[in-house]
Amino acid sequence: MKLFSAEQIYAADKFTIAKQNITSDELMERSAVQIFNWMHLRMQGAPVKIHLFCGIGNNGGDGIALARHLQEHGYNIAVYVVNYSTKRSKDFLINLDRLKDRKIWPNFMDSDGEFPEIGADDIIVDAIFGIGLNRPPAKWVGKLIDHFHASKAFILSVDIPSGLYMNQVPEQKDAVVRANFVLSFQTPKLVFFLPETGIYIDQWEVLDIGLDMEFLTAEETDYELIGKSEVLPMYVPRTKFSHKGTHGHVLLVGGSYGKIGAVTLASVAALKIGSGLVTSYVPACGYTILQTALPEAMVLTDGETAITSIDYTIKPSAIGIGMGMGTETQTIQAFATFLKSNSLPLVIDADGLNMLASNMELCSFLSKQTVLTPHEGELERLVGKWEDDFDKLAKVKALSKKFDCIVVIKGAHTITVYHDKGFVNTTGNPGMATAGCGDVLSGIITGLIAQGYESLKAAIFGVFLHGKSADLQIESKGYQALLASDVVEGLGTAYLDLFKLPEKPPQQEAESQE
Ligand SMILES: NC(=O)C1=CN([C@@H]2O[C@H](COP(=O)(O)OP(=O)(O)OC[C@H]3O[C@@H](n4cnc5c(N)ncnc54)[C@H](O)[C@@H]3O)[C@@H](O)[C@H]2O)[C@@H](O)CC1
Ligand SMILES: [K+]
């Protein structure tokens, strides 16, 4: 699913209005009806008090139009106009008149007025600011937002939590609505998924307001949200006459004394994701461990407790390097020599990234589209400190372009960046914040590349499957008990889940039984 910028959404609005020969207030009406239907379906006329706080732009217009529908269906509403400026939008005014025609008089709030009482069991509809916010809200509006939070009422935000920008992190962290639910028009917003701005959203859902599909399909976006429908076309099925040689040979280089587990986890993940052969290249202290833990892998060794040179005669199809490798001087030398001569597809993780960060000149030797899989700490060593999430993304894009590499920024929503484009993952859960999960991911991505997936697809698909496996596993294991090896274990079901059809809605089943 594409993640559009504010400018693209405004352009889509304009295009839709012209092509469908409708007025902009008709589009607003559609949006309001969609929100109303969503609420009505869940509330079924419940007499809960609904406080609608509406700004004076089009987000406010949505709120005012929604108020009319709620009132027509007998809901218990109170409407407030948050007068943060004098520039009321045309469609806001049209809807305000329609509301007045129905004898509903909103409370007009400004910097001097008192805030209304809101009960903990009430509902707040937040329609103050939408995607048009372009400067910090006035102080009193920030206080109103505080008042929302203090009430403990359920907050439903229209389109985007008020106070969040589309393309930057808010300056005033407390002048942003913390939404329990966001109903986002047509497309979710990038800020829902970034660590500094995603914290303002518990749950979100997209409402289709019928923006022109032709326009949306043709429009290129900087970011894409990756779910099942995006990865399914990437899947390469096995053919009947395939053999283990068909599915690639992974070489994993890593491990040091006390950290052989890292390369073991990556190796088993590479096998489980489907690579035909796996060779683990470890220091001698890892030999028995690997041969015992993973009889399916082949093992090459060098050095006693750390790798001192990387030398092999096998012909791998993809190489993963760095897991538990340590950063001893000889290991760094071996790593540098290896990078200078290697032209095979490559995945670099953990200590490999640390060695790269302290010797950035080595980046120019990366084979094309090398995949780097840093967590935040490793990333900071690679690109330097960032000011905020947007600055971080800009720095990563610059790194990706400079060295033609793919950067997988690991986090709650892992983002895979290649040149100017980011792919935001939707699978995974907090149970994955556990030792070894990163090693598993690097094994998965290397294993997919070895099977013939292009490096970028391998990274996007690998991140998805890794998270999906963990999501399926916590159903029986819970968050705390999830281990990296459970994530490896679940990879088979993660693959199978790709082909599971959504369950039929219960209503349909009841009908077909009659
Ligand atoms: N295609 C869509 O997605 C549609 C969007 N609609 C709604 O329209 C919204 C966007 O409407 P607008 O462009 O009017 O923007 P907003 O409703 O976000 O209003 C902000 C307005 O106030 C001004 N402003 C920005 N920051 C301010 C600040 N801190 N203090 C005072 N004034 C400030 C801006 O110039 C802007 O005109 C969307 O979020 C959505 O709710 C719907 O009505 C129709 C269809
Ligand atoms: K809003």
Automatic annotation (TrEMBL):
Binding site for AMP: 410-414, 438
PANTHER family: ATP-DEPENDENT (S)-NAD(P)H-HYDRATE DEHYDRATASE, ATP-DEPENDENT (S)-NAD(P)H-HYDRATE DEHYDRATASE FAMILY MEMBER
Cofactor entry: Mg(2+); K(+)
Domain called YjeF N-terminal: residue spans: 9-217
UniProt-recorded name of the protein: Bifunctional NAD(P)H-hydrate repair enzyme
Positions bound to K(+): 59, 126, 162
Domain (YjeF C-terminal): residue spans on this chain: 227-498
ATP-binding as UniProt keyword: yes
UniProt catalytic activity: (6S)-NADHX + ADP = AMP + phosphate + NADH + H(+); (6R)-NADPHX = (6S)-NADPHX; (6R)-NADHX = (6S)-NADHX; (6S)-NADPHX + ADP = AMP + phosphate + NADPH + H(+)
Classification of source organism: Bacteria, Pseudomonadati, Bacteroidota, Flavobacteriia, Flavobacteriales
InterPro entries hit by this protein: Carbohydrate_kinase_pred_CS, CARKD, Nnr, Ribokinase-like, YjeF_N_dom, YjeF_N_dom_sf
Subunit structure: Homotetramer.
NCBIfam families: yjeF_cterm (TIGR00196), yjeF_nterm (TIGR00197)
Keyword field: ATP-binding, Isomerase, Lyase, Metal-binding, Multifunctional enzyme, NAD, NADP, Nucleotide-binding, Potassium
Cited function: Catalyzes the epimerization of the S- and R-forms of NAD(P)HX, a damaged form of NAD(P)H that is a result of enzymatic or heat-dependent hydration. This is a prerequisite for the S-specific NAD(P)H-hydrate dehydratase to allow the repair of both epimers of NAD(P)HX. Bifunctional enzyme that catalyzes the epimerization of the S- and R-forms of NAD(P)HX and the dehydration of the S-form of NAD(P)HX at the expense of ADP, which is converted to AMP. This allows the repair of both epimers of NAD(P)HX, a damaged form of NAD(P)H that is a result of enzymatic or heat-dependent hydration.
Sequence similarity: Belongs to the NnrD/CARKD family.
One Pfam short name: Carb_kinase
EC number: 4.2.1.136, 5.1.99.6
